[in-house]
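Honest question from a wet-lab person: if I give you the sequences of every part of a complex, can you actually get the arrangement of the whole thing, not just the pieces? Trying it with mine:
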Amino acid sequence: MRENKYDDDRFFAAYSRFPRSVEGLRAAGEWPELQKLLPDFAGKRVLDIGCGFGWHCIYAAEQGAASVLGIDLSEKMLAVAREKTDFPQVTYRCMAMEEIDFPPQAFEAVISSLVFHYTPDFADICRRIGRCLVPGGDLVFSVEHPVFTAQGPQAWSVDGEGCRSHWPVDRYFDEGRREALFLGERVTKYHRTLTTYLNTLLQTGFALTGVVEPRPAAHLLDTVPGMRDELRRPMMLLVSAKKDG
Amino acid sequence: MRENKYDDDRFFAAYSRFPRSVEGLRAAGEWPELQKLLPDFAGKRVLDIGCGFGWHCIYAAEQGAASVLGIDLSEKMLAVAREKTDFPQVTYRCMAMEEIDFPPQAFEAVISSLVFHYTPDFADICRRIGRCLVPGGDLVFSVEHPVFTAQGPQAWSVDGEGCRSHWPVDRYFDEGRREALFLGERVTKYHRTLTTYLNTLLQTGFALTGVVEPRPAAHLLDTVPGMRDELRRPMMLLVSAKKDG
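Yes, you can. This is the full assembly:
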């Protein structure tokens, strides 16, 4: 069975207190950059893979999407998303990304925020997305950056005084499972190289239209403790791509 | 004046003893991956930016290029390249990449190996290349990976026993000048993010066709001391792109 940490009571409670869980997109440091990569949603059928609390689904609806389907593995997350969402054109479904099997050309746009590093088989996900996207359709996603996932523990190297000295990179070309600490819990993630992320897209029928390592939004740099350290190493990778056709 | 470390006697002597200087492409760990990204050179006019000892120029000629122009800042390197090259269709010229100003559509293919991290203005180089490439023409290059250039000194973090514990990343989003140690000499390089490398290409009229972080060639892993550590962090970035047209 797929790991579903987000339905674990303790983890869910911790994640629910996370700034981006409480305040939504504006508390997400990468949002201004991700927003720039998004297509015009007006009139489009949109799929959000790993929609969580539904922030991006609501955004797509606000931008005029004809329909938005948010899928997530966590019933607890979806319950909150349903509660929060007023748009009738937004629907939610509990399912894994590995089960995506929608009809051909069911969507004009697919988005996904910080989810693909939880799947062991990225190529399979790309093929599943490709099948349900129209030709010329858009895929925009964020993942944890390979520099962030490579070593495993996802913790800064510290000097003798406990100060962050640098970010450690190791095992970069050793793709696969990592056990990271997140919100005090062990979470399984899958490290893959940048090469794998980008060339897998090229090899499964997508053209790359944007690749961005976001810096935190300027308004967060001086208001969130420790945020300036986010300028010291990349933490996320944002990619926009277009299905060939 | 542009720094030209390669005409410094001591540095030139050290670089000339480097495996890739003596044995050429087969001693370059990234060559098998770079080779895969190269276009078919048959009948093409090719520009090699920072050609050094001319190994890639000779390869392009062997593959049937109609003409190959190798440019480099170092007269010493070019003297060796001329000495080594038997193909009359290969010519060499001493000039900086920042001075590229060839006629429009002068080339069908542009290649460059480990040179662009020496220029402070990558966008300017891309525009210069774009102007002298035919529509649909190919650009293939390697650079030192942003993970490799970010912190500056380009040295492993070591533990108490002097063993390599991991690769340090720092100052990632602080683009610009770095002083690295290379072959015992201080060399000025310019760090830029992966975002800058890839999006600059997209914004100057190129489509991305391949992005590869090469692992060392298998035959080097067990024969060159320390080579297995090259699996622990990316050192180079290879990019293939096509001029829009």
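Two things worth pointing out. Chain B touches chain A at residues 147, 150-151, 157, 165-174, 193-195, 198-199, 202, 207-213, 215, 231-234 (CB under 8 Å). The first strand of chain B starts at residue 45 and ends at 49.
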